[in-house]
Write the structure tokens for this entry.
Amino acid sequence: MSIKNVIILGAGGNLGPSILSALTSDPHFTVSVLSRHSSTSTFPAHVTVHRISDAYPEAELVAAFQGQDAVVSTLSHAAGGGHKAITDAAVKAGVKRFVASEFGSNTQNANLMALVPSMFKPKVAVVDYLREQESAGLTWSAFITGAFFDWGLKVGFLGFDIAAHTATIFDDGAAEWATTNLAQIGRAVRNALRAPEKSANRYLYVSSFTVSQNRILAACEKATGQKWTVTRVDGQAVKRAALARMAKGELDMGVFTDLIRVIHFMDGYGSNYVEEGQGCNELLSLETESLDETVARVVKG
């Protein structure tokens, strides 16, 4: 199998631009983007943009997917059933590889799925449906990346406020978890499409490094040359409060953020997948990156 023509869905989001950059920088690939008519995202002039109706009608999807070897999706799972329609269109158009919009926490971990099934079941359902299409000739890949590290550090998602020099640390801060920078995710997708046989019909666990909150704090203090103010919180208490709010129907960003932090900053939810022997960096020719260099880059802005 050879993959050359690739179309990206969600290329204007938080992750999409890094995948677009990795693929367009490789002359092996001919890359295009699928974008809704209502989208205000802009793309490099040399990238072909296929505009379709916001409802993702099948006929328009099939037309856009004609001649494409691979579809890479980073679309939000708030799209619900839209992912099934996109998969069906890919099959009808003869697409060879579908990269699912997985990218994140380890949905293959039973504890994680039991903690917040409503948050992650849509991702699992997409891959389950892709498995069903294998008999029709469609192959798939799904990437487990952990938190998007450089993005998460920059926007405060990981509990570190660069401007204020403050950090919120769960428990003793020693729990270890794998995490990936945005550009590394882009390289992972590119390298997987470069090696389609190795990356077919499987979850691919990738990372930039394995960290703990304590090590991130040390890197932040080193990069800023200042001692940071640390607030330590009880992880179990944060988890109970977030689940209680979710049970009341509160599904705001605060609840989501707290639960993602629980999954990463507390043991048992599959976030330390590299140390548990699931890492695929070697398979995809990805090098481990430097935590200190990454933090220094983010701090510098």
In short: The chain is about 40% helix and 20% strand. The longest strand covers residues 30-36. Residues 1 and 200 are 10 Å apart (CA to CA).
